[in-house]
Design brief:
This protein is of the alpha+beta class and 172 residues long. It has six helices and ten strands. It has one domain: Roll (Archaeosine Trna-guanine Transglycosylase, Chain: A, domain 4). Helix content is 32%, strand content 28%.
Length: 172
C-alpha cells in the first residue's frame, strides 16, 4: 500500500489541478502553515508568514485565492492561467471590489470556464482583484454587456482586511 499523502501534498495537488501543473509548488512553498477547521478537522486556510494565501472551499474542494496568493501564482506560473486583463478606466472600481463587466475586458485566458477562480490584472499585468468567472474566457472577450467576473476581493479591500486576518492567525 502507498503512503498517505501529507496535507502539503494534498493542497499542492488541488492547486495543480485547479491552476495547472507546477502551480502548487509556486503557490505553497514548504514553510506554509495549514490551518484546519476546529469543527470538522478538514483543511481550511493556508498561510505564509502570517499572511493568508488561500482558503479551501468546502462546497467544491477548490481554493479561493487572496491577492497575495494571486500575485504568487502569477509570478510562479509560466504561462499564467485563469487571468482576465481589463482596461485602465475600470481599474479604480475593480480594486475596490466591484464586478468586472465584459465591455472592460481586453483579453482573457481562453481556458476560463464559468464559476472558476480567476485573477484580474491590468495592462501591466499587476493584480487588481480575484473573483469568480461568470462567462467563459472567449465570451468575456466577445460580449459587450454583462458581468464577466464577480469580484470577491480587490487590492484595496485586501489592505483593509490584512490586519484583521493577522490577528485571527495569532489567536490560533
Amino acid at each position: 500500500m502507498g503512503d498517505k499523502p501529507t496535507d502539503l501534498q494534498k493542497i499542492r495537488g488541488i492547486v495543480d489541478y485547479q491552476f495547472g501543473r507546477g502551480a502548487g509548488e509556486g503557490l505553497f512553498p514548504d514553510r506554509v502553515k495549514i490551518v484546519h477547521s476546529k469543527r470538522t478537522g478538514r483543511i481550511r486556510h493556508v498561510y505564509l508568514d502570517e499572511n493568508r494565501l488561500a482558503t479551501l472551499r468546502p462546497l467544491d474542494g477548490f481554493f479561493s485565492l487572496t491577492i497575495l496568493g494571486a500575485k504568487r501564482l502569477l509570478t510562479h506560473l509560466t504561462p499564467p492561467r485563469l487571468w482576465v486583463r481589463v482596461q485602465k478606466e475600470a481599474e479604480p472600481f475593480i480594486v475596490r471590489g466591484k464586478s468586472v463587466f465584459a465591455k472592460h475586458v481586453i483579453d482573457a485566458d481562453d481556458e476560463i470556464r464559468p464559476q472558476e477562480e480567476v485573477i484580474v490584472t491590468n495592462e501591466e499585468n499587476e493584480v487588481l482583484a480575484v473573483g469568480r468567472a461568470m462567462l467563459t474566457g472567449r465570451e468575456m472577450k466577445a460580449f459587450k454587456r454583462g458581468v464577466a467576473v464577480r469580484v470577491r476581493r480587490g487590492v484595496e479591500e485586501e489592505v483593509k482586511n490584512t490586519d484583521q486576518d493577522y490577528n485571527k492567525v495569532r489567536e490560533l
